[in-house]
């Protein structure tokens, strides 16, 4: 209580920086930690009576889990690899003929760590070593260890690395990408020699808005070192079979110089280059005998290429057209040989776990809000189904549920909303759980989750608003909601909430429908939901926000915060008056005022390097001080995690978030 009094006094004395003291980059300030712990205790006290509902939900999710369809093996260097859900965190196994060996036991490696995350792993060409990227703090600096698979011995470790890049150049050399100190920007590709414990810098990016990565091409002989910003890329080609003694840095070949707004991504197979690029205005697939010379377009789809897979006789692309995903196969000259529609009402499909270009089949993952996940194999020559195996869930029948994709007309556009409900449970006062994201061109797919089914089985409607700024309708949809257009995404979410508030499946009478709207948003989705609540708090009964990016203006104005410079294209550059003014209008923290705010449960991670914990702390503190409603405003800071946490803890948190929101409705049972 004393800390709350201090906070209130601080706000009254200095309203322009009322809660700045909550920021502590060291994460060690005793006063700040005491405040966070006190808020945790306050939240725990409020949430304690809801633990029964939390347990019911967790039990339901566990009981519902039935038989999972067998995940396809990854074909790597003549062996088969797979991650299995054994124990709390799982294991990576490999199979050779009938023998299966454990390559990585995450359960053992997580012992004695309050936080653990396996970010990536990669096996050496001779299958004797595995490089793994692990995090035991919660930030974006990973520890990369190289382990002898047979003995389990750790041969070497590198600190402060980027998780996504682990590329073996040879059995003794691995390419990693180092993070820049303090900013966590992946900026330098380094070749590490495991045998001699030496390293060579292959490429270093000096532009603070650009990020470095690397990947192995389909021929398993060509490595691409890449640097890119939001709309431009540049690549360097390195052959893994270069003779020893040759300076690898000198062996790098620039593919094409960087050119503003031009992206290209190279793949190699059978001595021929294939390139996905927008050099002609739209993304297309090109081919070339010499990647540094002229490229010939062979596939020019009408929609947008979201994924592509290069095989010995086929090129398969995922093409998105106005929210519809097509899987299309072409011969190597660009002639279309098949086309499959992967989109149905509130469902989705995509290529996954395809690692062998010599395979005659490809794997496709499908699911929907009321459609359990399935693995389907397609003939790469014809596109015909070879086999399909779906998950089977206990006490679940697809026939009991209705899932659909509706359009909300707003500002001259139609905003897609995926939703699911039980027709036999739907009443005129059934609440709506409305999820939103809408940033980075990311499409929030309508995944199947037992967690959603639990809500729907209680009589709720679950909906996903595919607002502008996301990628549901392609790049134009994304551009219409990013940067100076961010207000569009917020207005889209508000429009979706308004329509769902009055949602009905039929109109037998003139009785008004007025549903409670419970909003959910995570990270950039927290920006969306919090900004919508600022504008129309009366629309929402409550909201649960996870690691929300809510202090947009301050964070984007502070280049000492990790990755700020790389985010200008997404959120705006505050050094430009027009862009700063837009941020000022919607930035959730900066637009809190004396209003009847709905109930809020806000979560953060103390070691989050993407969205610092103090954003959630400052936001919640100001809501508490200024709201004119007598609602709970709860802050929960995980003192042992970052932007994400392990699956078990995440499920417990999700169950409590749902319990919190259900408690605000007539479905709390």
Automatic annotation (TrEMBL):
- All copies of domain Peptidase S9A N-terminal, residue ranges: 21-385
Query: Which organism does this record belong to?
Result: Photobacterium indicum
Record family assignment: Belongs to the peptidase S9A family.
Asked if the keyword Lipid metabolism belongs to this entry, the reply reads no
Q: Which GO terms describe its biological process?
A: proteolysis
Q: Where is the Peptidase S9 prolyl oligopeptidase catalytic domain?
A: 448-665
- InterPro entries, alphabetically? AB_hydrolase_fold, Pept_S9A_N, Peptidase_S9_cat, Peptidase_S9A, Serine_Peptidase_S9A
GO molecular function terms noted in the UniProt entry: serine-type endopeptidase activity
Q: Which Pfam families match?
A: Peptidase_S9, Peptidase_S9_N
Q: Keywords of this protein's UniProt record, alphabetized? A: Hydrolase, Protease, Serine protease
The answer to whether the entry has keyword Ion transport is no
Q: What is this protein called?
A: S9 family peptidase
Q: Which SUPFAM superfamilies match?
A: alpha/beta-Hydrolases, Peptidase/esterase 'gauge' domain
């Amino acid at each position: 209580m004393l800390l709350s009094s201090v906070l209130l006094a601080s706000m009254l004395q200095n309203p322009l920086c009322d809660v700045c003291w909550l920021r502590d980059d060291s994460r060690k300030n005793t006063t700040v930690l005491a405040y966070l712990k006190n808020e945790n205790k306050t939240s725990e006290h409020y949430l304690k009576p809801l633990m029964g509902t939390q347990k019911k939900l967790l039990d339901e999710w566990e009981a519902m889990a039935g038989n999972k369809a067998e995940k396809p093996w990854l074909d790597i260097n003549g062996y088969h690899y797979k991650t299995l859900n054994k124990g709390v965190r799982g294991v990576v196994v490999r199979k050779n003929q009938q023998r299966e060996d454990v390559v990585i036991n995450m359960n053992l490696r997580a012992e004695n760590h309050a936080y653990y995350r396996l970010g990536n792993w990669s096996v050496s060409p001779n299958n004797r070593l595995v490089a793994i990227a692990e995090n035991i703090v919660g930030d974006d600096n990973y520890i990369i260890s190289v382990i002898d698979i047979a003995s389990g011995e750790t041969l070497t470790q590198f600190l402060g690395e980027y998780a996504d890049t682990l590329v073996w150049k040879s059995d003794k050399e691995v390419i990693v990408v180092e993070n820049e100190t303090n900013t966590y920007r992946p900026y330098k590709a380094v070749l590490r020699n495991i045998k001699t414990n030496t390293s060579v810098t292959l490429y270093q990016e000096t532009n603070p808005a650009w990020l470095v990565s690397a990947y192995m091409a389909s021929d398993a002989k060509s490595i691409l070192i890449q640097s890119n910003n939001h709309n431009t890329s540049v690549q360097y080609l390195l052959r893994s079979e270069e003779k020893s003694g040759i300076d690898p840095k000198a062996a790098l070949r620039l593919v094409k110089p960087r050119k503003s707004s031009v992206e290209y991504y190279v793949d190699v197979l059978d001595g021929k280059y294939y390139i996905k690029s927008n050099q002609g205005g739209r993304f297309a697939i090109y081919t070339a005998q010499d990647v540094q010379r002229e490229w010939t377009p062979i596939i020019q789809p009408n929609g947008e290429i979201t994924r592509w897979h290069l095989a010995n006789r086929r090129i398969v692309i995922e093409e998105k057209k106005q929210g519809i995903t097509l899987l299309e196969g072409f011969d190597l000259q660009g002639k279309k040989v098949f086309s499959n529609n992967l989109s149905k009402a509130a469902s989705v499909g995509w290529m996954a776990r395809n690692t062998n270009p010599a395979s005659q089949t490809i794997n496709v993952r499908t699911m929907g809000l009321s459609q359990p996940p399935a693995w389907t194999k397609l003939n790469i020559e014809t596109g015909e189904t070879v086999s399909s195996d779906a998950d089977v869930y206990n006490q679940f029948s697809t026939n009991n549920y209705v899932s659909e994709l509706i359009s909300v007309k707003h500002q001259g556009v139609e905003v897609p909303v995926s939703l699911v409900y039980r027709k036999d449970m739907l009443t005129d006062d059934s609440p709506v759980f409305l999820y939103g994201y809408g940033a980075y061109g990311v499409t929030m797919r309508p995944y199947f989750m037992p967690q959603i089914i639990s809500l729907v089985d209680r009589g709720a409607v679950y909906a996903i608003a595919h607002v502008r700024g996301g990628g549901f309708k392609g790049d134009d949809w994304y551009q219409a909601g990013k940067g100076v257009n961010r207000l569009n995404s917020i207005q889209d979410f508000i429009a979706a909430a308004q329509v769902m508030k009055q949602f009905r499946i039929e109109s037998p009478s003139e009785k008004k429908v007025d549903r409670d709207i419970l909003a959910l948003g995570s990270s950039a989705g927290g920006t969306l939901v919090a900004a919508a609540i600022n504008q129309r708090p009366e629309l929402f009964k409550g909201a649960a926000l996870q690691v929300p990016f809510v202090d947009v203006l301050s964070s984007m104005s502070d280049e000492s915060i990790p990755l700020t410079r790389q985010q200008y294209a997404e959120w705006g550059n505050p050094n430009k008056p027009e862009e700063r003014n837009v941020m000022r209008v919607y930035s959730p923290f900066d637009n809190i005022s004396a209003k009847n705010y709905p109930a809020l449960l806000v979560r953060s991670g103390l070691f989050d390097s993407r969205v610092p914990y103090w954003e959630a702390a400052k936001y919640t503190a100001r809501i508490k001080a200024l709201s004119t409603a007598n609602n709970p405003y709860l802050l929960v800071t995980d003192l042992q995690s970052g932007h994400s946490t392990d699956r078990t803890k995440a499920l417990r948190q999700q169950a409590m978030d749902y319990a919190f929101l259900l408690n605000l409705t007539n479905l709390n049972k």
